[in-house]
Specification:
Helix content: 55-70%
GO molecular function, one term: kinase activity
Radius of gyration: 40 Å
Protein name: Histidine kinase
Number of helices: 9
Strand content: 5-15%
Keywords: Kinase, Membrane, Transferase, Transmembrane, Transmembrane helix
Distance between the termini: 45 Å
Number of domains: 2
Pfam families: His_kinase (PF06580)
Strand order of the largest sheet: 2-4-5-7-6
Largest sheet: 5 strands, mixed
Organism: Flavivirga jejuensis
CATH superfamily of the largest domain: Histidine kinase-like ATPase, C-terminal domain
CATH class of the largest domain: Alpha Beta
Length: about 350
């Protein structure tokens, strides 16, 4: 790690040295225009180099990152003004250096461009502006990269949180479902009913679904329908002659997918909280597909809506819908005229 750091610093120093050597060549070419005294031009350029380097580094390592990037504009303007004043003063000294030490007070012996303070200042600040521009571009790219990384981390955190919420909701559904089913089996076992083996087989199928498919983010709708049918068959055994249930499916696409255990809680609640009227618990379930839209409706005889509001299933299903299909579903629940109705339209377009 230390070797890489040292190597990186050496490479950085070499690149800086190469760049400033290029600036020196630029100065000798610029100030050597219309002058044949190479010794004068080189000495003048060398004298100007520390001024250029110092001014440039003050801007790119202090003023720009500390004040401009952090939007401290007043301090940026103030310190920029200080730097310009000091650098212009030093540039003026370089002009006098050319006049006094290099030309021995002979104005005509000076390189023509080096006589003009404005041109010398422009040459210095051309370098400063170019380097500052590259520094701003580098800082901007670094900021964009950091922003992208931060957004990625936020999205990953949100995704993990979403997955944990879904797992928690599923953990609540499983015991709720198993509790109802095992209670039914217990009642059959006590009566030593002939249907008990078939019920165990149905429960085995449901447990297989719970253990191996429900942890997937999405399952085929046709598989979920088979699971619902198994559940309904179990309930038929439990209710015997007191159940009047209709389950209709239409236009079910074989490749359409849905979140597992999404529809079952509605059906569970219709059995758990539905009311027996005139000796029957009436339930009607309709499931149809239209393109990528799933239309699900269920209605059952009922008394009060309070029992539904207290159930785990409906509360969980609302949360799961918000997590998985936010903005892509419509859910209406009503309880009127002794009928509890659920209408769900689900858009599964990815």
């Amino acid at each position: 790690m230390l070797k890489k750091f040292i190597l990186k610093k050496i490479v950085q120093l070499l690149l800086h040295a190469l760049f400033w050597f290029g600036v020196l060549l630029f100065y000798t070419y610029f100030f050597g225009f219309d002058s044949s005294d190479f010794s004068y031009v080189l000495s003048f350029s060398l004298f100007l180099m520390p001024i250029t380097i110092a001014t440039t580094y003050v801007f790119i390592y202090k003023i720009i990152p500390e004040y401009l990037i952090k939007k401290r504009y007043i301090l940026f303007a103030l310190y920029s003004l200080y730097t310009v004043i000091i650098s212009v003063y030093l540039i003026l000294i370089s002009v006098f250096y050319g006049l006094i030490y290099l030309s021995s007070f002979v104005y005509t012996d000076m390189a023509p461009i080096s006589r003009n303070l404005l041109f010398v200042t422009l040459a210095v600040y051309l370098v400063v502006i170019v380097v500052s521009g590259f520094k701003l571009l580098k800082l901007n790219l670094k900021h964009v990269e950091q922003t992208n990384k931060l957004e990625t981390k936020i999205l990953e955190t949100q995704l993990k949180l979403k997955e944990q919420q879904l797992k928690y909701l599923k953990m609540q559904i499983h015991p709720h479902f198993l509790f109802n089913t095992l209670n039914t089996m217990y009642g059959f076992a006590l009566k030593k009913a002939d249907e008990t083996p078939e019920m165990i087989l149905k429960l085995s199928n449901l447990l297989d679904y719970l253990l191996y498919k429900v942890d997937k983010p999405f399952v085929l709708l046709i598989d979920d329908i088979d699971h619902i049918k198994d559940y309904i068959e179990l309930e038929k055994m439990r209710f015997n002659n007191t159940l009047d249930i209709i389950f209709l499916t239409e236009n079910i696409s074989e490749d359409l997918k849905i979140a597992p255990m999404l529809l079952l809680p509605f059906i569970e609640n219709s059995f758990k909280h539905g009311a027996i009227k005139n000796g029957l618990l009436s339930i009607k379930i309709i499931l149809t597909c239209e393109d990528k839209n799933i239309h699900f409706s269920i209605k059952n005889t009922s008394t009060s809506s309070e029992s539904y509001k207290k159930g785990i299933g409906l509360e969980n299903i609302q949360k799961r819908l918000d997590l998985l299909y936010k903005g892509h579903y419509t859910l209406n629940i009503t309880n009127e005229n002794a009928l509890f109705k659920v209408n769900l339209i689900l858009n599964t377009t990815e």
